[in-house]
Specification:
The complex is a heterodimer of chains A (about 325) and B (about 270). Chain A has about 325 residues and is of the alpha/beta class. Chain A has eight helices and 18 strands. An eight-stranded parallel beta barrel of chain A has the order 3-4-7-8-11-12-17-18, surrounded by five helices. Chain A has a four-stranded antiparallel β-sheet with strand order 5-6-16-13, with no helix packed on it. In chain A, helix 5 packs parallel to helix 6. The longest helix of chain B has 13 residues. In chain B, helix 4 packs parallel to helix 5. A seven-stranded mixed β-sheet of chain B has the order 10-9-8-7-11-12-15, sandwiched between helices. A six-stranded antiparallel β-barrel of chain B has the order 1-2-5-4-3-6. Chain B has a two-stranded antiparallel sheet with strand order 13-14. Chain B contains five helices and 15 strands. Chain B is α/β, with parallel strands linked by helices and about 270 residues long. Chain B is globular and about 50 Å long. Classes of the chains: A alpha/beta (about 325), B alpha/beta (about 270).
C-alpha cells in the first residue's frame, strides 16, 4: 500500500503561524465553547470570537434572521456580554483552546475600541485582535468606520498604539472601493486584512407588508456572496501585499481553495457552521484531499496561484481590477 | 429547567411519515443517540436536502421519543417544511439535537394543565407521555376539526386526558383554546402549573390567565433560528433579567421559559 502523499497545511498569516488555513468567523462560533461537542476547536487553524464591545450590548429586536436565496441576512446588533464579563466568563474558556485565538472588537467610537484593547492587552488567553470596522461611528453621524479610508486609518492607528499583538482589520464590502480603505488600514499598522464582512441587505415580508428584520436592515452572508467576495480578495491580492483572510459563503474545501487561489493566506468559515456544525473540519479535510489528488506539497504554495500563468497577462489590467487611486 | 446535555449531529432515517391533519405531518425518525438523550421540551434542528436554498436547518420540538426513534410533528408552511414533510420511509434527515432546555421533571402525583395551539402540541405531548407518575389535561385548540389529528390522545398515559377546542366549533368547545382553559380552571384550581405552546397571542393569553390565578406558567417559544446551539445570537426572546429588559436565546436558554420573565408586549 503506497504511503499517503504528505501535505503541509501550515500557513503563515503575517506574524501569525497557523497550523492550517481554516478559521471560523466572528459571530458564528460564540466565544469558542459552543461547538466543542462536535469537534475539538483546537483542530482549526484559528477561531475568532463574537465581537466584544466596551459595554454589554442587548442586541437588536427580533427577528434577527431572514433567509434569502442561498443566503442569510442577520441583524444581531452585536449582542455581547461586554469586555468585563468577557474577561471573567469567556476568556477562561478561550484560554484552554489550543489554536490561534483572535478576539474581535467593535465599538461606537474610537475611544471604545481602544478601551477594550487596553483592558485585554495585558491578559493571556488569546493571540490577536480583529477590528470590526463595519460599526457605525456615532461621532460621524453613524457612518461606518470602514466606509472611508481616513476613518478606517484613524481607528486602526489608535488601536495599533494600544497593542503589540497581531492586528487584523476586517473590511466592509459596503464601500465604493475597498482598496483605499485596505491601504489606509495597512499604512496605519494592520498586520493582516480579513474580508469580506457581510453585505448590507434587507427583505420585506409580503404578508405583513413590513421589513422582515426587527432592525430593518442587516448583513447578507452565505453562498450567494461568495463570487462577490472572491472578486474583492483577488483584486486586493493583486494590488496590495498584505496577508489576507478570505471569507464569504465558504461551504466546503472547494470554496476555501477558491479563496486561497484568489490570494487569501487563510480562509474563514461562518454561515456554513449553521448548516453543518462540522463544516470547517470537513472543509479542511477536503483541502487536504485536493492537495493529495493534485500533488500539492504545501497549501501555501497555492496562495494567489490564480493570478499567475497564461493567459492572464493583459487581462489583469482590466478596469475592474485596477487600483483607481491617482 | 433541565440542563441541556450532550448534543448529537447525526443522520436519521425516516421510519414513518403520515399526514395526520391538514398540512400536519407526524414523522418518525430513527436516531438512537438523540432518542435516548431527548427530554420533553427539547428540539432538533433538521435538514433534509443538500442544496443551499433553502439554507438553514429548521427547528422542531420533539413530540415523542422512545427506543431508537423520535417523532416530530411538522406543519408544512414553506419550501423547507415541504421537503421535510415529503420525506419517505428510508430517506435521510440530518439532525442536530437534542437542543435547548426543556420542561422541569414533573412532580410525582402532580397535576398539570397543558394548553396547545396547532403544532404547539408537540412538546406538550412529549411532556405528558413521559409524566407517568403525574397527571393532567391537555387542552388542544385549532381552527377546525380538520386541523386536529384524529387519534393523538391514544399516546397519553393514564391520568392524562385531552380536551379540544375549535374556532368553528366542529370539535370540542367552540372558540379559542384559552376559553377552554378558563372553563377548566373554574372547575379546579389545583394544578402544579400551566404549560402553553402555540401561537404567541395564545401563550400570552394563557400566561395572563395563569398569573391572575397565581399559578406557575411555562411557555415554549418558537423563533427563527440559525445555529441552534447558542453561538449566533439569532433567536432572541425578549425577557426581563435582573429587572432590566434583555434578550435570552430560544435555542440555549429556552425554548421553555417562565411566562413571567417574557416581555409579552415585545413579542409579535
Amino acid at each position: 500500500m503506497s504511503p499517503r502523499f504528505k501535505v503541509d497545511l501550515a500557513t503563515k498569516l503575517g506574524p501569525l503561524e497557523l497550523k492550517n488555513p481554516v478559521l471560523v468567523s466572528s459571530g458564528t462560533f460564540g466565544y469558542g465553547g459552543e461547538y466543542a461537542e462536535f469537534y475539538d476547536p483546537s483542530s482549526l487553524g484559528g477561531i475568532v470570537t463574537k465581537s466584544i464591545t466596551l459595554d454589554e450590548r442587548p442586541g437588536n429586536p427580533p427577528p434577527r434572521l431572514v433567509e434569502t436565496p442561498s443566503g442569510l441576512i442577520n441583524s444581531i446588533g452585536l449582542q455581547n456580554v461586554g469586555v468585563d464579563r468577557f474577561i471573567s466568563e469567556k476568556l477562561p474558556v478561550l484560554r484552554e483552546i489550543g489554536t490561534v485565538r483572535i478576539v474581535n472588537i467593535a465599538g461606537s467610537t474610537i475611544r471604545e475600541y481602544v478601551a477594550v484593547a487596553k483592558k485585554l492587552e495585558g491578559l493571556d488567553g488569546f493571540d490577536a485582535f480583529e477590528l470590526n470596522i463595519s460599526c457605525p461611528n456615532v461621532k460621524a453621524g453613524g457612518i461606518a468606520f470602514g466606509t472611508s479610508p481616513s476613518s478606517a486609518g484613524r481607528l486602526t492607528a489608535a488601536v495599533r498604539k494600544a497593542t503589540v499583538r497581531p492586528l487584523i482589520v476586517k473590511l466592509s464590502p459596503n464601500v465604493a472601493d475597498i482598496l483605499p480603505v485596505a491601504r489606509a488600514a495597512v499604512d496605519a499598522g494592520a498586520d493582516v486584512l480579513s474580508l469580506v464582512n457581510t453585505y448590507r441587505a434587507m427583505a420585506i415580508d409580503v404578508e405583513s407588508r413590513r421589513p422582515a428584520l426587527g432592525a430593518v436592515t442587516g448583513g447578507l452572508s452565505g453562498p450567494a456572496i461568495r463570487p462577490l467576495a472572491i472578486y474583492h480578495v483577488f483584486r486586493l491580492s493583486l494590488n496590495l501585499g498584505a496577508p489576507l483572510i478570505g471569507m464569504g459563503g465558504i461551504q466546503c474545501g472547494r470554496d476555501a481553495l477558491e479563496f486561497i487561489l484568489a490570494g487569501a493566506h487563510a480562509v474563514s468559515i461562518g454561515t456554513a457552521s449553521f448548516i453543518d456544525p462540522t463544516a470547517p473540519m470537513r472543509a479542511l479535510g477536503e483541502i487536504r484531499d485536493y492537495c493529495v489528488r493534485r500533488r500539492v506539497r504545501s497549501v501555501s504554495g497555492l496562495i494567489g496561484a490564480a493570478h499567475r500563468g497564461r493567459p492572464q497577462g493583459k487581462r489583469l489590467n482590466s478596469p475592474s481590477l485596477l487600483n483607481h487611486e491617482p | 429547567m433541565k440542563n441541556a446535555g450532550k448534543k448529537f449531529h447525526t443522520t436519521g432515517r425516516v421510519l414513518r411519515n403520515r399526514e395526520i391533519a391538514a398540512d400536519l405531518f407526524e414523522i418518525s425518525i430513527e436516531c438512537p443517540e438523540i432518542a435516548r438523550a431527548a427530554a420533553p421540551g427539547q428540539f432538533v434542528n433538521a435538514r433534509a436536502w443538500e442544496e443551499t436554498s433553502p439554507l438553514l436547518r429548521r427547528p422542531f420540538s420533539i413530540a415523542r421519543a422512545g427506543g431508537d426513534a423520535i417523532i416530530l410533528i411538522v406543519k408544512k408552511v414553506g419550501p423547507a417544511t415541504e421537503i421535510i414533510c415529503g420525506r419517505k420511509k428510508g430517506e435521510a434527515v440530518s439532525l442536530l439535537g437534542p437542543l435547548g432546555r426543556g420542561f422541569p421533571p414533573p412532580e410525582k402525583g402532580g397535576r398539570y394543565l397543558l394548553v396547545a395551539g396547532g403544532f404547539g402540541i408537540a412538546p406538550l405531548l412529549f411532556f405528558a407521555t413521559r409524566a407517568r407518575a403525574a397527571g393532567g389535561v391537555i387542552l388542544f385548540g385549532a381552527n377546525s376539526k380538520g386541523h386536529l389529528p384524529a387519534s393523538i390522545e391514544k399516546h397519553l398515559p393514564k391520568n392524562w386526558k385531552m380536551l379540544y377546542a375549535t374556532i368553528d366549533g366542529s370539535r370540542g368547545k367552540k372558540g379559542l383554546v384559552t376559553g377552554l382553559l378558563t372553563a377548566e380552571l373554574k372547575k379546579s384550581k389545583k394544578w402544579n402549573a400551566i404549560y402553553a405552546c402555540g401561537p404567541v397571542p395564545m401563550m400570552k393569553a394563557a400566561a395572563a390567565i395563569a398569573a391572575k390565578r397565581s399559578l406557575p406558567c411555562l411557555v415554549s417559544m418558537e423563533t427563527h433560528m440559525a445555529c441552534g446551539v447558542g453561538a449566533c445570537m439569532g433567536c432572541p426572546v425578549p425577557v426581563i433579567e435582573s429587572g432590566k429588559p434583555a434578550y435570552k436565546m430560544a435555542c440555549a436558554d429556552g425554548p421553555v421559559f417562565d411566562a413571567d420573565e417574557i416581555r409579552w408586549e415585545e413579542t409579535a
